[in-house]
Amino acid sequence: MIAYMLCLVLFCLGVYGALAKRNVIKIVLGLAIAECAVNLMFVLIAYRVHGSAPILPRVAEGGAPVMVDPLPHALVLTAIVIGLATTALMVALAMRIYQQYGTYDISEIRELKG
Amino acid sequence: MIALYTILVVMIIGAVIAIEARDLLSAVIAVGTVGLGLSLAALVAKAPDVAITQLVVEIISVVILIRATIRIGLPRSTHGSTPLLGVVALVFGIAVLVVGARVFSEIPPLGAPHMRVSETYVAEGLEDTGAVNVVSAILLDFRGYDTLGEATVLFAAVMGVLAVARPVGRRKTRTEPNHANK
Fold first, then answer.
1. Domain holding A36: CATH number?
2. What is the ipTM of this complex?
């Protein structure tokens, strides 16, 4: 419960950074932090006390082995790679904005619009 | 579980520094702290696949972000948030935390997940797929279409980066007809 709340605090910090900051790079960083928080939430939901890592033991014993939930791990792996791709796209757009306007400040960019 | 809480607190401190730092390079490095904290937390929570992937991805993304900030000789971050904005953010943050507390009291507590779907995967994964690692069995076999979609999104994003980041100029296409005329 406390760990989930800390995750939510991290997510709120990321959303605050994405909404309140005027620097384009800061917005990208805020979104990256929010994404990290969501992935962490999934990993924590999958955690099981006294469970092993989701790798089957060499000798199959009777009954299913006690391990952490492997399904969120698979989903988080997908989300991490997609997060890298979106971050790279956002950074490319930010650098193009800098080339065009010479600044990272979105309020100045808005004023420069004709 | 003390290690997990410590890592979470370090991640939150790193996020605060990343958002409030004036210097962009410091902010990017602080975001690296957050990502590596996620890697460590995944290791503590028995998710080695996630930990390895997150480590590699975080290093790559920090390199990309540093490339964007260092190119312009350490620009100063513009920090212009009005005081009213801070009050609104605080009110909304508290509201979200209250609602989140209600929601988190409904879902299963930390350390006791419902595993209705993954029970099948764990029990039959070895016979069906032959993979000892259940995560790779799910990723590449049970939910292979999911991974295909991931590859599609990755391809689209790489195409977008190439389209946006390529140098401007149609000089080549414009000069080619001249050569043809000569």
1. 1.10.287.3510
2. 0.89
